[in-house]
Amino acid sequence: xxxxxxxxxxxxxxxxxxxxxxxxxxxxxxxxxxxxxxxxxxxxxxxxxxxxxxxxxxxxxxxxxxxxxxxxxxxxxxxxxxxxxxxxxxxxxxxxxxxxxxxxxxxxxxxxxxxxxxxxxxxxxxxxxxxxxxxxxxxxxxxxxxxxxxxxxxxxxxxxxxxxxxxxxxxxxxxxxxxxxxxxxxxxxxxxxxxxxxxxxxxxxxxxxxxxxxxxxxxxxxxxxxxxxxxxxxxxxxxxxxxxxxxxxxxxxxxxxxxxxxxxxxxxxxxxxxxxxxxxxxxxxxxxxxxxxxxxxxxxxxxxxxxxxxxxxxxxxxxxxxxxxxxxxxxxxxxxxxxxxxxxxxxxxxxxxxxxxxxxxxxxxxxxxxxxxxxxxxxxxxxxxxxxxxxxxxxxxxxxxxxxxxxxxxxxxxxx
Length: 416
What we know:
Distance between the termini: 62 Å
Strand order of the largest sheet: 1-2-4-3
Number of strands: 4
Helix content: over 70%
Strand content: under 5%
Shape: globular
Structural class: mainly alpha
Radius of gyration: 23 Å
Largest sheet: 4 strands, mixed
């Protein structure tokens, strides 16, 4: 144990304690407002629906809080508990300390992490989601999806891991820069590859049928200057009754996707307003801005890893005997970093909420703001989204503005 061990333990305790405290605040705040619908929603959402949203949000938050404890315990077992050292000894014993051993070590860490998280995911789907009437998945579908996800992650991740480990060992002092370039290329490749080849492995995407809705949407796309590969309807109802809409990909791979559950619940004018919001993200370059920030931050972190790679105090402080292999350095760094960056979450959430407000303003220029209000209220009700989140919890976690604030802003736009 050295000074960095104490710093790590203090940071882990602070981050974990703060996350659990925020979860407690959130549940307490929701339950305190459970028996009364906020005045601005009283005309559209009845008390039973409001109470269902309160209980659903509280159940999810409770499970997340349990997961926070499990995550902290697993990190301690991996680091100071000797888990990384044991997995490294196993991987090098079977595969040596070269690229094969490094890949085996990373795969073992991911397998253990996935095995620990699996019961939580099962309970979320077949416990909470089923209890509140949202889950449509069968155990067979769940297992099939899990197998597909594992195969895809292996097919895409294995070449990436091999490339990164090779560059760390062969590209000299500035290996981190070359890794960053490959990482950017990989993300752009997946973004272009996903809509056409990966997403259809999990859901069926059908071209939108001709009719009033398609005509309205195509007219809106022309007004907004947006070109896509097509309009598609996804069979989201096979897995969940939650509704959504999104656009994905870039360049010629851009496509607009509507959940069938969304189309069944909203009127054509409301769907048009929801799409205008999504198009606002594109037209205002929100996607590319977020990508730019992500790439910039990843470059900084890779540079820091380059500095720490040969620092014996870093490994000793986390329970690993130096010198460590590149695979150990990579996994250790990126599993520990979130402990020290958790308090930056409000900045990222605030940036995301700013984009949501901007997309709402864009939508109000092309569709009536009242239609987006009606659509959002229906989605809040159908998806059992809480109308009374704890403000501090929301500041840390919510990528979208709280319902009351968002609706109030849209009503101001409508009045203007």
